[in-house]
Amino acid sequence: MPQAGLPARRAAVFLLDQVLGEGRLLSEAIGGGALERLDPADRATAQRLATETLRGLERIDRILQKHLQKYPPITVRNALRIGAYELCIGGAAHGVVNSFVEIVSRSKRHGSMKGLVNAVLRKVAANGAEVYPTLRTPRLPKWLRGPLVEAYSPEIVAAIEEAHFAGAPLDLTAKSDQGALQRATEGALLPTGSVRLKEAGQVSMLPGFKKGTWWVQDAAAAIPVQVLAPKEGEAVLELCAAPGGKTMQIAASGAKVRAVDTSESRMARVAENLKRTKLEADLVVGDALAEEGQWDAILLDAPCSATGTIRRHPDLPHAKDGSDFFDLFNLQAQMLDHAVHLLKPGGRLVYCTCSLLPDEGEAQVEELLERHEGLRVDAEALDIEGIDPAWRSEEGGLRLRPDYWSDQGGMDGFYIVCIRKD
Ligand SMILES: C[S@@+](CC[C@H](N)C(=O)[O-])C[C@H]1O[C@@H](n2cnc3c(N)ncnc32)[C@H](O)[C@@H]1O
């Protein structure tokens, strides 16, 4: 792992301030320009340091706690956290300690605390790397752990936490030829057809990137379109499409896709992705709830808590507290009602969320069926290659969890269901 420089470390401290102090997601802070002034290598390092520190935060705080009589101001605490993380994974003590002393000493408000930073990080340097791996796997914060234990069990939540701590490999979806992609990248072909790379490096340097023969997409995220099974020439409506992984899958099947999303900037990414992969879709920046018409096939990948993606986004449980989730649950119900209204008789709707919360999955479907007559869950739509029967949920959907495929690197948490209008 390359040694981080001062600008990257300073930016990583800023990112941690944003997540732990301001409750912002890393993606929001970075999208807001937090790393704009850095060169690409420093940008990647700052992001990696912030992400991995947040992933191991409980362990890091335990180690720091022993050397602190009271907590310093948040920026100093975050400098200590990132310094401690680097030391705990074997960073060279001299360079790490000096960098964070320098960062704090340059701060007008906290410059006087450079002695504390020096003393604490030297103590962490002495044995942090030995202690770090012996501490318990970091747990989710209570606001999320509680509902998950209730929905699953303490043992399953512990396994999910293991998967979060292990992080995520890079999964690719082939535009057409999975076997060729697997051979070209020397990755592993997963049972559901995605290709998994353990050591990815820079994505744009992977074979086939420029030709657009694949795109990055978690293996679980690639399943909803397989459940929808779009046919060549079929017209498909995709609601909430950006950044477009599923749009590309639908377009690659030969179906005609109208992809709708409210976010102009995220839709620009869909357009870029389609250009690189030489695929076509009708892109609409607009509200899913304003869509009209009658469709045989609809995919609704609704906005959700994203609690299924914590392996990739360990900032999420620290930035959020669940207080805005009720608005999402209501929006999902509204979107489901609208989507079934847009379905032709005999048509199918695949609903999915990258969430672990049953409120955004199983419960939404049960309530939808209570609100509308003439709908049924099509469990047969889940008869696709690589699906483990144990993943099927009672009401006929698929419940995917990060601890599945644990020996192969896990998967994102997802809920997927196919609804038919009779
Ligand atoms: C889970 S993401 C979609 C991921 C995407 N389907 C993919 O596979 O790449 C949810 C998306 O819903 C969009 N969104 C939120 N509210 C919306 C609305 N009222 N109408 C349309 N899109 C909306 C967000 O901009 C976001 O891009």
Automatic annotation (TrEMBL):
Q: Which residues bind S-adenosyl-L-methionine?
A: C240, A241, A242, P243, G244, G245, K246, D261, D301
**The protein's name:** Transcription antitermination factor NusB
Q: Is-annotated flag, keyword Methyltransferase?
A: yes
Q: Which PANTHER family match?
A: NOL1_NOP2_SUN FAMILY PROTEIN _ ANTITERMINATION NUSB DOMAIN-CONTAINING PROTEIN (PTHR22807:SF61), NOP2 YEAST -RELATED NOL1/NOP2/FMU SUN DOMAIN-CONTAINING (PTHR22807)
Return the similarity comment: Belongs to the class I-like SAM-binding methyltransferase superfamily. RsmB/NOP family.
PROSITE patterns, from UniProt? SAM_MT_RSMB_NOP
Which keywords fit this entry according to its UniProt record?
A: Methyltransferase, RNA-binding, S-adenosyl-L-methionine, Transferase
Q: Where is the active site?
A: C354 (nucleophile)
Q: Which InterPro entries match?
A: MeTrfase_RsmB-F_NOP2_cat, MeTrfase_RsmB-F_NOP2_dom, NusB-like_sf, NusB_RsmB_TIM44, RCMT, SAM-dependent_MTases_sf
- Write down the species: Cognatishimia coralii
Q: Name one Pfam family in it.
A: NusB
User: Where's the SAM-dependent MTase RsmB/NOP-type domain?
Assistant: 132-422
In terms of superkingdom, the source organism counts as: Bacteria
